[in-house]
């Protein structure tokens, strides 16, 4: 019988339960996927805690890679035996197998292993839309990226370097600084002992950066605004430290006629053609070795509670996966 992590109430990591589940056969437009690896993302904690809504009881997780075991009526793009990966709703990726809508699947190239796919699909597509859709970056631009040693950060910095974009990255420790530097950060700021906005101004000769990419939220919001150049853009794409504070229009004017956007990956991969374009470019870089995916934490799926504790403690570097 299939097994899955589920939660019947919102709360801390202790609400995650390892349960036997009935999977069944796929219906119209659905497939049954046997998972080979499952991604662990900070967004998973938002569903568990109740920050993001979920109808309870619910499965957990939105990213995995595996093999199609069966297809339902009307499915034409995938067949039994296909290698696939995915990210996005509905919840339920923390499982040994599942039935899900075929429309969410992405064909996985033979040159990418399942663990790599589970570690990079959400993070890589996030880096993809941040760099290729949000702002027209050009070679020579300098941007600020928070959490530069995280899963998204390490992909982002490598990709930015390929584009000729200079990255100033923030990290919490010297160890993480070394990792970020090794993956392409031109400058690394250890925020626990340095004033980030002041260092950004020093690095940019007082101008600031045209774009800040901020996945942290509450604790970095003011710093991000203060690091921007006149008419700069804050891309607030995550809330690891809590929701971004309310934004007052006059505050943006006083600080230099700034812009703020709060994008979500789902809106950049909803269109199949755009998803194919973004994933195709990502997969091409990975297969060619131009972008390397760092998997530094491996867990058994039944150890999801500990995995969430480690994730929220901020001790993770690079990507984390559940392996079978």
UniProtKB/TrEMBL annotation:
Concerning InterPro entries, the annotation shows: ADH-like_C (IPR013149), ADH-like_N (IPR013154), ER (IPR020843), GroES-like_sf (IPR011032), NAD(P)-bd_dom_sf (IPR036291), QOR-like (IPR047618), Quin_OxRdtase/zeta-crystal_CS (IPR002364)
Among CDD domains, the record links this protein to: QOR2 (cd05286)
Pfam families, from UniProt?
ADH_N, ADH_zinc_N
Keywords assigned:
NADP, Oxidoreductase
**Gene3D superfamilies, per this entry?**
Medium-chain alcohol dehydrogenases, catalytic domain (3.90.180.10), NAD(P)-binding Rossmann-like Domain (3.40.50.720)
UniProt keyword Nucleotide-binding, yes or no? no
Question: Which superkingdom is the protein from?
Answer: Bacteria
Q: Which residues form the Enoyl reductase (ER) domain?
A: 11-322
Q: Which NCBIfam families match?
A: PRK10754.1
The protein in question is named Quinone oxidoreductase family protein
| Protein species of origin | Rhodococcus kronopolitis
